[in-house]
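User: I'm curious whether this sequence folds into something compact or stays loose and floppy. Could you predict its structure so I can see for myself?
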Amino acid sequence: MNYRRLGNSGLRVSELGLGTNAFGKRADRETSIRIIDFAIERGINFIDTANIYADTESERIIGEALQGKRSKVVLATKGGLPRGSGPNESGSSRYHLQQELEESLARLQTDYVDLYQIHTFDPNTPLEETLRFLDDMVRAGKIRYIGASNYFAWELMKALSISEAKGFPRFVSTQVSYSLADRTPEHELALLCLDQGVGIIPYFPLAGGILSGKYSLNGEAPSDSRVVTDPNFARFLDEGRITLGQQVSSMAEASGCTASVLSLAWLMNRPAVSTVIVGATSTSQLEDNINSVSVKLSEQVMSQLDEISDTYRYGKPFAWYRLPK
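Assistant: Here's the prediction. I'll summarize afterward.
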């Protein structure tokens, strides 16, 4: 496994990270724990979760799996998206984040998280309030580093400016939908991250499995695909992205690897990317994706991948999670 700095911080994370959105939902407790053990054995040290994944079950499973192994991983979680319908059950206020962080720590069975990420920008809470709370938690030893997620470039830059002016910790990373099927971060966000030393952590790096080539234009899908286990995912399927997945599959076959590996390797070579989080519902799936770390892409292959995905530099992001104003 190879390791990179998370942004300009001194924290080193595996090039491939483990996303755990499926834990407790599409992967049961026993399978999820096996995947975590397998990931650690293969050198993956970055594990990413959130307080809302599988209605908090993901954090509980991870907490159980990491007993006796906590020091082996860089553990990341998030807070800020809705946890209920009450007036203070969402957003980035001190009130909401304090409660959610404490509950996350309890579920994760740990005294601290290595990276605490604000799950999305909150238009109803001053950034200074959010950043001052995060500063307090870093000083208290409950958080080591802070990150953003689903922030527009101007929102992230404003947060960085406030941190600099007030002496607060800076966001060292930002999570965003980024893949061959969604290159919209390249317009402004990636350039900002390069300039400011913020590491990009792509989510949906395989566009929910579309870039694995498993979907066809006739509507058929494997029994274990996301669209079968999560029918709501069907909203992401369109002819253009399915065709892109098939094109990537053809290139991967010629390169002697799977479409997933080729897609992940391309993403690892994009500027400002620190670690690519990939989900898994089996150890065999994760084992294949780990091969992306050792794949060396030629300039010709990179150029061809850039060309066939160029249309996805424009338009709407593949996924974007926001709070109402």
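Summary: The beta strands are 3-5, 12-14, 16-19, 46-48, 74-79, 113-118, 143-149, 171-177, 199-203, 276-279. The chain is about 35% helix and 15% strand.
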